Amino acid sequence: MKDVRPRMVNGAARLLAQKGLQGASFAEVLELTGAPRGSVYHHFPNGKDEMVTAALDAVSEATLKRLGELERTPVAITGGFLALWSDLLDRAKLTAGCAVVAVSVAATGDLLDHAGAVFSRWTGHLAGLLTEAGVAPAEAADFATLLISASEGAVIMSRAQRSREPFDRVSRLLTAESRRIASPS
Questions:
Q1: Distance from C-alpha of 127 to C-alpha of 123, rounded to nearest angstrom
Q2: Three-state secondary structure readout of 65-125
Q3: pLDDT of residue 134
Q4: What is the pTM of this model?
Q5: Which of 8, 63, 104, 185 is the most exposed place for a label (fewest CB within 10 A)?
Q6: Residue 185: what pLDDT?
Q7: Which stretches of the chain drop beneath a pLDDT of 50?
Q8: CATH code for 4-182?
Q9: Do the beta carbons of residue 21 and residue 107 sit within 8 Å?
């Protein structure tokens, strides 16, 4: 039964991405994961916020791990980050978005701060990868912010419009910009 907590954390992350913060209740997580009811306060004695924080951390770590596997070129880094969201949109048939965004738009206080910290880690990590790829640090930080905010917005629009078109348009523009920063004039 030691896999119960990770199963609940991953279930919470999925529910956050599909149903938002309000849809990631303990009852919903238990139903999705088949975890026993008594495991809720055993694994999350501080309540729902603890579970959501763990879910955000799991999403963040999985994202950072995938980014760490990318070839160190601006185009590959951009393509890899966009592939995370493209894969999510396809797997979920446009019914899921980013768990971190879901928390950002619905939470206050510590949860909102935690979501902000996840975005900061992603931005810093992407900027570091871009700098390793030869992009000047200031431009790398700017592009990392653009990459995250534009792709997240495109995921939201694609989900709301039930169409990949917004995401595909933004992907083309971000890819073109990644080519530009890869070969400064």
A1: 6
A2: HHHHCCCCCHHHHHHHHHHHHHHHHHHCCCCCCCHHHHHHHHCCHHHHHHHHHHHHHHHHH
A3: 96
A4: 0.92
A5: 185
A6: 58
A7: none
A8: 1.10.357.10
A9: yes
